[in-house]
Amino acid sequence: MTKTTSILALTRRRFLGGAAALSGLAATGWTGKAFAQEPEKPAEIIVRAWGGSWVAALQAGVSDPFTAATGIAVRHDLTEDNEIQPKVWAAVAQGRVPPIHINWDTTTNATKSALRGVTEDLSDLPNLANTTELAKPVGLEGYPIVNTYGYVYVLAYRPSAFPDGAPTSLQVLLDPKFKGRIALYNDGIGFHFPAQVAGGGSLEDIPGNMEPAWEFIRKVKAQEPLLGEDPDFTTWFQNGEIDLAVTISTNAREAMKNGIDLAWTVPEEGSKFETDGLWIPKGLPANELYWAKQYINFALTVEAQQVWLDGLGLPGVVPGVTPPEGLAGDPSYPTEPADFERLIRVPTAVQVEHESDWFGQFKAIMQG
Amino acid sequence: MQTSKQAYPFRWRVMDAVENTASAVWPSRFSRGLPYLMLLPAALLVLLLVIGMIQIAESSAHRLDRSTFLPSEDYTGANYSQIFSTGLYWTVLWRSLLGSVVVTALCLVFAFPYSYLMVRTSSPLLRKFLLIALFLPFFIGQVVRAYGWLIILGNQGVANGLLGLVGIEPVRLLYNYPAVLFGLVQYMLPFAVLMLAPALAAIPEELESAANSLGASWWRTFTHIVLPLAKPGLVGAGLVVLTLSLTDFAMPAILGGGSQDFIANAIYDQFFRTSDQGMGAALTLILVGIGSLAVGLVFTLFGAGTLAMGRDRK
Questions:
Q1: Is residue A5 in some structural domain?
Q2: Domain check: are A116 and A210 in the same one?
Q3: pLDDT at A16 over 50
Q4: What domain count does chain A have?
Q5: What is the tens place of the pLDDT at every residue in B255-287?
Q6: Are the C-beta atoms of B306 and B199 separated by less than 8 Å?
Q7: With an 8 Å Cβ cutoff, is A139 touching chain B?
Q8: A359, B86: Cβ pair inside 8 Å?
Q9: CA atoms A256, A261, A266, A269: torsion sign
């Protein structure tokens, strides 16, 4: 899965965030003096991240303040999450030191790594005590992953194409006037579950009977949708190729910030809610493992989450984070139980087991 | 009278030492083995490839256990069964094969007059222009070129802009099969020209002059003299374009809009999107098999072309 949006200059935000995070570090007693008794510091730690504004937000909220406090440089490896996975798996299987210290990953992908046994347990992170239930990976022993925020696959649209107001239902994807002007992820991620509802099916039937989803997707296929990754959506919107797309709200928000005429909504069928997290591969030297854990522990502070997630426009896992301007009450920024009523959550274990089949089925329809 | 030191300079002594060392390491009686020694690096590379293929074959015989995301212990042909029983893979295989054949045919058709003009023109300026036009695309990578087409052929691109000038509404020129084939032809054309030009240059121009002076029409000269003699070049160019097109990843991914995958895209999905290395390995072997069969078929029907390395010469 690609998460790349345009590179934004977060200089001011980065500066303010760094200052705030440093004060946060001091407030939690995490100071340079405290580190004097800690294991030897590595020269750097490597964090795999998504590019563009995703990595800029991480750097501003977590990496830079961590470096300021510890003196340990943080290098961001922008290898795709799907592409780093086999490299990490191979390194662990061969007893080599893995190529990264921390993987910023989707929870579904991270769960695959946890099931394979290549993740370190993070249960001993002190700041886990301050997190919400969202931080805990469901169906796994301990904390092989720490979820750090949630996100929504919204229905993004070009307002000029909807003079009567925002679309309310996914049925709009079947409107002949949008033929060839809609976009989905090329594996259908984020769309399978809402399509199940739009096709007249029930979420309770997932994964046993998803024929309603496939039937709806077959109808969408007749509309000749474009299929791609996040950067493609931005390009297509910018070039006037599409009017509608099911995409992560962060990408829609960044595209809008870049001057693209764009808005988003959660349709009546609901939108998929998902989480991302951080995890550490096995095989690191003990001191590097310690500092990698400290990095994740710091990412779970209010100060770090505030700046990091302000950049992403996403709800975090630590109480006390203030929503970014304009996102309070937005359906893509759920914080209260009522906010989740229109969002679709399917257990990670079910997704991990069946995701390949869903991808395959979606591709079979779209490639046919 | 010269001193012995002047008569036998130092550098000669150095050369003697080098020669003696070389003789000690590789005595002259081994000289017949020298060509084989020079083959050694290439043989090692092929050996590495073979080892890799064996590992891929081994990997393809294991199913992914989704409870642990590890390959199963037991050997099975389940990955192959799934591939051959899934319509998606048949679609992708057929699309790749058909696409590579179409691209090869178009490239040969377009490359032939280009190459012919390049080697036969009496104008040095035109020859230089054609050479520059040929090599310029090599300086631009495939991905960049594909993105260039996105700009040119997009809804708001140059092509639709020109259509708009004559009152035609924007047309979807991208994200379909013809767009992928178009991109591949543009990418492969220089390879075809490069393979074809030496073969055409090797045809004596006097043969064509003789045919003309004996009353043969241009078409008859072309079909009876030029084309048969250009066959090795056509076969060589065809093989290169066919195999490169069959295994291409970027053009279907970028110009296909996600719905025109070739086999390489399906392999990528298995390795990196669904973490199923066994299935990815099985698809890889099938791709290698199809490519080898296609090359074998061309060899059988048309000979090895320029790859025959003069075996047919008498």
A1: no
A2: no
A3: no
A4: 2
A5: 998 889 999 999 999 999 889 999 999 999 999
A6: yes
A7: no
A8: no
A9: negative
Q: Residue B179 and residue B157: Cα distance in Å, rounded?
A: 14
Q: Assess A241–B contact: CB distance below 8 Å, yes or no.
A: yes
- What's the confidence (pLDDT) of residue A25? 52
Q: pLDDT above 70 covers what percent of chain A?
A: 90
Question: A229: nearest CA in chain B?
Answer: B258
Q: For A69-82, b where at least 16 C-beta lie within 10 A, e where not — what string?
A: bbebebebbebbbb
Compute the distance between CA of residue A121 and CA of residue A149 in angstroms, rounded to an integer: 19
- The enclosing H or E element of A357 equals helix A348-367
DSSP one-letter string for A169-219: SGGGGG-GGGTT-EEEETT-TTTHHHHHHHTT--GGGTTT--HHHHHHHHH
Cα A259 to Cα A54: distance, rounded to the nearest angstrom = 18
Tokens 């474009």 correspond to: A226
Closest CA to A44 of A121, A124, A100: A100
A157: Cα within 13 Å, side-chain hemisphere: 20
* B107 burial level (CB within 10 Å; 0-12, 13-18, 19+): buried
Domain assignment present for A1: no
pLDDT digits (tens, 9 = 90+) for B228-244: 999 999 999 999 999 99
Q: Which residue in chain B has the smallest CA separation from A183?
A: B257
Q: What is the reported pLDDT for A6?
A: 40
Smallest Cα–Cα separation from B188: which of B117, B107, B252?
B107
Q: How far is CA A312 from CA A23, A74, A163, A261, in A?
A: 22, 19, 29, 19
Distance CA A121, CA A136 (A): 12
pLDDT value at position B140?
86
Confirm whether B33 is domain-assigned: no
pLDDT at A254: 82
Are residues A200 and A268 located together in one domain of the fold? Answer: yes
Which amino acid does the sequence have at B54?
Answer: I
Residues forming a β-bridge with A77: A48
Q: How far is B295 from chain A (nearest CA, A)?
A: 27
**Given phi > 0 = left and psi -120 to 50 = alpha, else beta, which region is A165?**
left
The contacts of residue A258 (CB under 8 Å, 6+ apart) are A5, A6, A234, A238
Task: State the burial class of residue A262 (Cβ atoms within 10 Å of its Cβ: 0-12, 13-18, 19+).
Answer: buried
- The reply to whether residue A367 touches residue B259, judged by beta carbons under 8 angstroms, is yes
Give the pLDDT confidence of A247-273 residue by residue, as tens digits.
Answer: 998 888 888 888 888 999 999 999 999
A331: in domain: no
| Closest residue on chain A to B277 (Cα) | A86
CATH number of the domain residue A164 falls in: 3.40.190.10
Partner residue facing A82 (CB), from B87, B259, B273:
B273
Using the beta-carbon criterion (under 8 Å), do A226 and B258 form an inter-chain contact?
yes
Report the C-alpha gap between A281 and A122 in whole angstroms: 11
| Cβ within 8 Å, pair B274-A356 | yes
What gap in Å lies between CA A298 and CA A278, rounded to an integer? 12
Alpha-carbon distance of A190 to A203, in angstroms, equals 14
Helix spans in chain B (H): 4-7, 10-25, 34-60, 78-84, 87-120, 124-135, 142-153, 158-165, 177-201, 205-213, 218-221, 227-246, 250-255, 263-268, 277-302
Q: How far is CA A76 from the centre of its chain?
A: 16
Q: Would you give the DSSP letter of residue B65?
A: E
Q: Which CATH number covers residue B257?
A: 1.10.3720.10
Q: Which positions ≥6 away from A11 have C-beta within 8 Å?
A: none
